[in-house]
Write the structure tokens for this entry.
Amino acid sequence: CRALLHQAPAVGYDMLLTDAADSAQTLLRLARIMKSKLCEGLILVGELPDQDVVWDEYEKLGVPTVALLQGARDLPITKVAVDNAAGVKLGLDHLVGLGHTRIGYVAAEWMHGLHDRLEAFRTLSRQMGLVVRDDDIVSTGFSREGGAAALQQYLAARDRPSAVMIATDLMASGFLREALRRGVAVPSSLSVVGFDDITEAALTYPALTTVRQPFDDMAAAALACFARQKERRSVPRDVMLAPSLTIRETTAPPGPAIAGP
């Protein structure tokens, strides 16, 4: 959102920011209100748990619309997204290059984009010959508290991976905070890789190694697609951008295992 708000005036748009409050029906109501107030179109950022139920009604609004951060699924509107599978591969390649052979994953599955990351992890880890046991994949809430709960679950097991990928930086920040509280040495006993590279990733302790979404480029692509729609020019249905890896302080070669329960 920050990137959109920063870039929009430079291409001749003013933006009104509003929150759908985790409800697709609220999203539809807000969209109707904005259309009645002569807004020229909409850019949807992020996913809602129940939003699939409103797409048919949403299309009937007939305003230029672009979606950001929606995962790999097909949508009836133009979508700008990061290549989640490529991002997971960047994280795995980094950890394998450090010598890790057993890598866990902390998932939050209700979002399509996060589900894409989990499925990419399952597929790529299998292709790379990594050891991933059933309890190495932990499903938790999309929150800092969910990340903390995942660390507790790993600590409750007697045999653990030497590295963990986490679906989002938000969850990773809670995971790292709980590791610090419990005396788990990161990265000497456990390496951690996040995903997104939000501002908070550089402020965790230790600073988080993470897969970076190119938010500025995604905002620029969304605005360009919006402008083309407004001018009734052809627009690609899907625009996929490449991630990169930001290496900070939470990854290192495998060290001594975490002490058992």
Remarks:
- The helical segments are 2-7, 24-36, 55-59, 84-98, 112-127, 144-156, 169-182, 215-230.
- The mean pLDDT is 85.
